[in-house]
Amino acid sequence: MPADGMRGGSKRVMKCFPVLDEWSGTLRVIVLDETVTLEVLREHLNEGGNFIGVGSLRVQNNGIYGRFKVGDIKPVK
């Protein structure tokens, strides 16, 4: 990995990152626009998990980790 954290840097060092094979969590999303349905919200969250991800080695940062899938969505009014 680059020593300074910038891609293309000349100085590189060995770094060790943890890998979680399985993980789960709970996310609370507040939707203010009534036109956003549960199906639209689920689609956007799933696409975010496929193309953006979470973590420093996520897909958006040209990594191969951080992808996620959406489980249950429980609406609360």
Can you give a write-up of this model?
- The chain has one domain (21-77).
- The mean pLDDT is 88.
- The chain has one helix at 38-51.
- 18% of the residues lie in helices and 0% in strands.
Low-confidence stretches: none
The fraction of residues in strands falls at under 5%
Give the SSE order as H and E letters: H
Shape: elongated
Rg of Cα set: 17 Å
The count of domains is 1
Helix content: 10-25%
Task: Find the count of extended strands (DSSP E, 2+ residues).
Answer: 0
**How many helical stretches?**
1
**Mind describing the biggest β-sheet?**
none
The first-to-last residue Cα distance is: 46 Å
Averaged pLDDT, please?
88
Q: Which structural class matches the secondary elements?
A: mainly alpha
List keywords for this structure.
77 residues; 18% helix; mainly alpha; elongated
How are the secondary structure elements laid out?
Layout: H1 38-51
Task: Give a quick rundown of the structure.
With about 80 residues, the protein is mostly helical.
